[in-house]
Amino acid sequence: MADGVAGKDKCGEPRLVSLPLSRIRVIMKSSPEVSSINQEALVLTAKATELFVQYLATYSYRHGSGREKKALTYSDLSNTAEESETFQFLADILPKKILASKYLKMLKEKRGEEEENDDDDDESDDEAES
């Protein structure tokens, strides 16, 4: 595990994880089912999180436009979340960016469709009562 050293702590000792353990502890304790957290579980959760983020970034870079630009962009991540079955659970967290004008247009269209459906429902209710 020494090859996974990400940095050094205050005492100069090598660290196995680079994410702040205190923040991860706060996030874990925010769950009502968690009463106490073992230090080993905390470190393993931090390491697993780092490996997951690394895998997501690498996958997004390789399958996105990042190779051409030599950069990983938000759109690479959101495309990965949308298109890859493995990362589908992230689609709500990493939505595709759209312009506000396009979003407002989509909302208007959706409201128009809902109004049409409501009108159709009203007409079918009137016919059923006849």
UniProtKB/TrEMBL annotation:
<keyword id="KW-0007">Acetylation</keyword>
<dbReference type="GO" id="GO:0016779">
    <property type="term" value="F:nucleotidyltransferase activity"/>
</dbReference>
<dbReference type="GO" id="GO:0003677">
    <property type="term" value="F:DNA binding"/>
</dbReference>
<dbReference type="GO" id="GO:0005634">
    <property type="term" value="C:nucleus"/>
</dbReference>
<keyword id="KW-0238">DNA-binding</keyword>
<keyword id="KW-0808">Transferase</keyword>
<dbReference type="GO" id="GO:0005721">
    <property type="term" value="C:pericentric heterochromatin"/>
</dbReference>
<keyword id="KW-0548">Nucleotidyltransferase</keyword>
<dbReference type="GO" id="GO:0006334">
    <property type="term" value="P:nucleosome assembly"/>
</dbReference>
<dbReference type="GO" id="GO:0008623">
    <property type="term" value="C:CHRAC"/>
</dbReference>
<dbReference type="InterPro" id="IPR003958">
    <property type="entry name" value="CBFA_NFYB_domain"/>
</dbReference>
<keyword id="KW-0597">Phosphoprotein</keyword>
<feature type="compositionally biased region" description="Acidic residues">
    <location>
        <begin position="114"/>
        <end position="130"/>
    </location>
</feature>
<comment type="function">
    <text>Forms a complex with DNA polymerase epsilon subunit POLE3 and binds naked DNA, which is then incorporated into chromatin, aided by the nucleosome remodeling activity of ISWI/SNF2H and ACF1. Does not enhance nucleosome sliding activity of the ACF-5 ISWI chromatin remodeling complex.</text>
</comment>
<dbReference type="Pfam" id="PF00808">
    <property type="entry name" value="CBFD_NFYB_HMF"/>
</dbReference>
<dbReference type="InterPro" id="IPR009072">
    <property type="entry name" value="Histone-fold"/>
</dbReference>
<feature type="region of interest" description="Disordered">
    <location>
        <begin position="109"/>
        <end position="130"/>
    </location>
</feature>
<dbReference type="InterPro" id="IPR050568">
    <property type="entry name" value="Transcr_DNA_Rep_Reg"/>
</dbReference>
<dbReference type="GO" id="GO:0046982">
    <property type="term" value="F:protein heterodimerization activity"/>
</dbReference>
<dbReference type="GO" id="GO:0006275">
    <property type="term" value="P:regulation of DNA replication"/>
</dbReference>
<comment type="subunit">
    <text>Heterodimer with POLE3; binds to DNA. Component of the CHRAC ISWI chromatin remodeling complex at least composed of SMARCA5/SNF2H, BAZ1A/ACF1, CHRAC1 and POLE3; the complex preferentially binds DNA through the CHRAC1-POLE3 heterodimer and possesses ATP-dependent nucleosome-remodeling activity. Within the complex, the heterodimer with POLE3 interacts with SMARCA5/SNF2H; the interaction is direct and enhances nucleosome sliding activity by the SMARCA5/SNF2H and BAZ1A/ACF1 interaction. Within the complex, the heterodimer with POLE3 interacts with BAZ1A/ACF1; the interactions are direct.</text>
</comment>
<dbReference type="GO" id="GO:0006261">
    <property type="term" value="P:DNA-templated DNA replication"/>
</dbReference>
<dbReference type="GO" id="GO:0006338">
    <property type="term" value="P:chromatin remodeling"/>
</dbReference>
<keyword id="KW-0539">Nucleus</keyword>
<feature type="domain" description="Transcription factor CBF/NF-Y/archaeal histone">
    <location>
        <begin position="18"/>
        <end position="78"/>
    </location>
</feature>
<protein>
    <recommendedName>
        <fullName>Chromatin accessibility complex protein 1</fullName>
    </recommendedName>
</protein>
<keyword id="KW-0175">Coiled coil</keyword>
